[in-house]
Prior knowledge:
Elements: H1 11-26, H2 78-85, H3 98-107, H4 116-122, H5 142-146, H6 163-168, H7 177-188, H8 198-203, H9 212-218, H10 233-257, H11 270-273, H12 284-288, H13 304-316, H14 320-336, H15 342-365, H16 370-389, H17 392-412, H18 421-428, H19 439-452
Helix pairs in contact: 7-10, 10-13, 10-15, 13-14, 13-16, 13-17, 14-15, 16-17, 16-19, 18-19
Bound molecules: heme C (4 copies).
One heme C binds near residues 100, 103, 118, 122 and 196.
Amino acid sequence: MRERPFFTVAAAVVVFAAALTTSLRASAPAATALPPTGSGVSRAVASESNYVGPGSCSAVACHGAIRPAPGSRILQTEYSTWVSQDRHARATEVLANPVSQRMGRILGIGNPQQAQKCLLCHSLDVPAALRGRNFATEGVSCEACHGPATGWLGYHVTNDASHEESVKRGMYDTKDVVKRTDKCLTCHLGTSEKVVDHEMIAAGHPDLVFELEAFSAAMPRHWSEKTDTDAYKPVRTFAVGQLVHLRASLDSLARRVKSPIWPEYAALDCFACHHGLTRAADSWRQAQGYEHRARPGLPQLQVSRYLTARRVLQAWEPPAAPELDAVMAKLQIEASRLSVRSDEVASLATQARAIVDRGINRALTSMATPEMASSMLRGLFADAPAIAERGERAAEQAAMAIEVLSTAIAKSRGQDPAAMQGTFTELFQQFESPSSYDPRKFSAAMKKAESAIPIR
Length: 456
Ligand code: HEC
Ligand code: HEC
Ligand code: HEC
Ligand code: HEC
């Protein structure tokens, strides 16, 4: 994960003041827009599915314990973990920092702490009509992922409460890994309503990069991963996360290519434009040639999610992998044209999506095996030179996948993943200065990693 500033406790006071202003703003009629689709906001009767805010979960006997409750399936430390370690708790606060404030000026949206454009992803942004009495917007809090709580809050603390029944009462089903990934991606990739585009990136917003298991570990997880009955469960979670991420990025492309703003630079390979120049004789780009685009010198589509996920697809649904490759080859050429045929691109993206769907269904209905895990890992190492040439983002996505997979494999064999830490540190050093990323160095680091990571 990238280096980020550390937030002090003193700054939390600012958040509180900011939250007050935002909730005042939100109670104005103008803010009572419909909830964004795909955000998991139930449109059921408002009184049954209001949002209560994280304060209602924070009691020591509920989710605010300091130490995990002995013998309990639920850790009960979830709130403590979120408030003290999880960046989501500070998500509204960052809208007050100098980078955000400058972003607000560049984009002409005023104070980002009051701009819907930002709050959509940086707070528990729900319509005023759905807010309970002690509701607070600040932070990406519990209900941003677990759904509006008034429908299930009382029920879920009863002795024989079941997850299924809580879901019926409006809890979002984060146990379903497809739904879980889609939920993360509403903010970590975006939807038609929640958008991070190149205009925002140029104004200072970080580019959105995601990998389900790597990001869950970084949150960090406030739940325990139960692998006693299935040691390879994290491998399957990884696979589903990869394929759902690819599917969502295809949907995003189909949407963007049809919008008035195309080429949308955030969908292209960033470092096709943002790289330093060398003497012609030293240029790795010229040495590699300009495949995968309509003409030399055009920026190419960013395919970081595809290049890693195709190895996942190959392990789970082998016949689908060459079919996906064929569609993606055409899609990349079509999407690179400056005067794009948007119907053609959208149709190819839809075809690719249907193939990815088959992989998702397969991953959901079969168990991960040690062979699958090592075949994905071996495949990624074999692809390293090809992935390396497709740019920094592609390499970064592959590196995250390698770390997640080899960690999962080590754990399932009862080995200590910490032994591989040095290897990953070296791998991730390749991304510290992305504009001067060098595929030859990345390939070399991958070779080294391959020999350091035990693959059966
Ligand atoms: C589509 C959802 C989305 C929207 C809309 C959005 N953001 Fe973000 N923002 C994110 C995510 C996700 C991250 C974390 C990215 C990462 O680290 O991978 C982030 C990170 C940031 C960061 C870096 C935080 C840090 O700790 O360094 C800043 C600053 C920021 N956003 C400001 C804004 C501002 C200002 C706006 C409105 C103009 C905005 N964001 C709109 C999703 C969004
Ligand atoms: C960014 C999304 C996100 C946020 C914010 C979040 N959670 Fe979670 N939570 C998850 C995911 C994903 C899981 C794992 C899947 C599961 O078990 O439901 C989980 C699991 C849990 C579990 C374990 C459920 C079980 O049956 O094992 C509890 C309890 C929980 N969260 C409570 C909270 C509380 C309380 C908060 C707020 C302080 C919170 N969560 C905030 C995503 C989130
Ligand atoms: C409602 C929007 C939203 C949802 C849903 C969401 N996130 Fe986030 N996430 C954010 C924002 C905004 C930030 C940036 C916060 C900051 O930097 O202060 C962020 C930051 C993070 C970070 C820190 C990134 C870094 O660079 O250090 C991780 C890790 C993360 N999210 C994981 C997840 C996972 C895993 C899920 C799903 C289980 C998820 N998020 C769901 C909005 C969201
Ligand atoms: C088609 C070319 C192109 C692509 C692709 C592209 N950008 Fe840009 N980017 C530009 C141009 C042009 C500017 C504004 C001119 C300038 O750099 O001064 C810019 C500006 C920026 C800036 C602000 C410049 C600075 O020095 O701070 C950032 C950051 C940025 N882009 C990041 C990205 C990221 C991340 C991606 C991929 C998600 C990306 N760009 C994709 C052309 C591109």
